[in-house]
Design goal:
The protein is mainly α. It is about 60% helix and about 10% strand. It is built from 3 helices and 3 strands. A hairpin with a 5-residue loop joins strand 1 and strand 2.
């Protein structure tokens, strides 16, 4: 009795994890979640089949519970190609999203530095004011600010280019792998 109760309690959270939504943002970014997508994103409801096994025909939704005993030790080792392909697709998508986030983070850093540059220029102008006796000091401060931010912008540009190259290389490698898989499947 106690073991059945424990199995039932362990299986309960699994029943709520099967509703999935594929959300596509306006910029093409795709995310998967268990709640409906925001109204600004395109939504596709997905049916996730637990362990690759459809629910019973009677309409009763019961999650599969695998009990490992000496006689049924191999039951839990059964995996379907669908499970492997789905997990591989999720992993590929997660890796690509991480690369895209690196590009976005580098671009955000560059944008932040551009804002900081404008604030520094405004601060220098405020500090030295319109007094003609401070004109040379103001020019020197502005030249210093420009030099500093020019160097930082070059670093940001190289970060953005490197991150974008990583995304492009990833895409190229995935296309090559897909082409190889397709040619292997045709043989």
């Amino acid at each position: 009795m106690t073991s059945r109760l424990i199995l039932l309690l362990l299986a309960m959270p699994a029943t709520t994890a099967f509703a999935q939504y594929k959300c596509t943002a306006a910029n093409g970014a795709v995310s998967f979640q268990q709640t409906p997508c925001p109204t600004t994103q395109a939504e596709q409801k997905l049916t996730v089949v637990p362990n690759g096994h459809p629910p019973p025909a009677s309409g009763v939704v019961a999650p599969p519970v695998i009990v490992r005993t000496a006689a049924s030790a191999s039951v839990g080792k059964v995996e379907t190609n669908v499970d492997k392909k789905m997990l591989a697709n999720y992993e590929r998508q997660r890796r690509r999203e991480a690369l895209e986030k690196a590009v976005q983070a580098a671009q955000a850093d560059k944008d932040g530095r551009a804002r900081d540059r404008l604030l520094d220029i405004a601060g220098a102008k405020k500090q030295f004011g319109d007094d003609p006796s401070n004109a040379q000091a103001l020019r020197d401060a502005l030249v210093s600010i420009d030099r500093r931010y020019k160097a930082l912008t070059e670093l940001d540009d190289s970060r953005i280019q490197a991150a974008q190259k990583a995304v492009d290389d990833w895409d190229k490698a995935q296309k090559a792998a897909a082409a190889e898989a397709a040619s292997t499947a045709r043989r």
